[in-house]
Design brief:
24% of the residues lie in helices and 34% in strands. The protein has 181 residues and is of the alpha+beta class. It has one domain (3-180): Alpha-Beta Plaits. It has an 8-stranded antiparallel beta sheet with strand order 4-1-3-2-8-5-7-6. Strand 2 (15-24) and strand 3 (33-37) form a beta hairpin. The structure holds protoporphyrin IX containing FE. Protoporphyrin IX containing FE is lined by residues 58-61, 65, 69, 87, 89, 113-114, 117-118, 120-121, 124, 126, 128, 140, 142, 157-158, 161.
Length: 181
């Protein structure tokens, strides 16, 4: 099942934006709050910025990995998961010039992305959106929810992934942290 979602920043929305850091490349403008909606309809107030993406099918995960993720992952919207991160990412042309099997080798056999991430399940719930083919400024929108006591672990996870060869292909990354209040 695929779902097209809109991440709209502005004066209203259930998530309060705590920080916006341009980890690599240009950041996004400061905004107060974030709303995630399935339709493009604009709220009464003009949004500061809107990003959209499709949460759809996995590209690289093997059957074994999908089964493991399905058995271990938590769903979004848990009451205790009042912290979130929205990390939009764009990869370089060199990445997209690779064939799918070459990208898989860098992603997992070399960088161990899923293996690293699995250690943080089920504390961190995640959803991956694709947006390269929608003409968006990013290729992916990554969304994570976790309880405040797991915030330090989430920082360690992000640091571990950023140290991998896969991240050598990341040319723009914005790290947006939010709380539900
Ligand atoms: C893709 C797992 C955390 C960024 C993926 C995929 C898996 C995965 C299985 C591949 C999906 C597919 O087959 O297409 C995990 C797990 C995590 C985690 C278990 C633990 C919570 C993160 C974090 C970031 C991130 C913290 C960002 C800082 C990405 C990106 C992709 C991706 C950008 C798309 C890569 C591509 O298609 O080129 N992740 N991930 N992930 N993840 Fe993670």
């Amino acid at each position: 099942m695929t779902s097209l979602d809109y991440f709209r920043s502005g004066p209203s929305g259930p998530w309060r934006i705590v920080s916006i850091d341009g980890f690599r490349g240009e950041a996004l403008p400061r905004a107060e709050r974030l709303d995630i909606a399935a339709e493009a309809a604009q709220p009464a107030e003009a949004p500061c910025w809107t990003l959209k993406g499709v949460a759809g099918h996995a590209r690289y995960a093997t059957r074994r990995e999908l089964d493991m993720l399905g058995a271990t992952q938590a769903s979004l919207g848990r009451r205790e998961a009042t912290c979130a991160a929205l990390i939009p990412i764009r990869k370089s042309q060199a990445w997209w010039n690779l064939a799918q099997d070459e990208r898989r080798v860098i992603f997992e056999e070399t960088s161990h992305h899923t293996a690293i991430g699995t250690a943080y399940l089920p504390a961190v719930a995640r959803r991956l959106y694709h947006c390269r083919d929608l003409g968006e400024p990013f290729d992916f929108l990554t969304w994570f929810e976790f309880a405040p006591e797991h915030a330090a672990a989430f920082d360690a996870l992000v640091a571990a992934l950023r140290a991998t060869p896969e991240w050598g292909y990341v040319e723009r990354e914005v790290d947006i942290r939010l709380v539900w209040d």
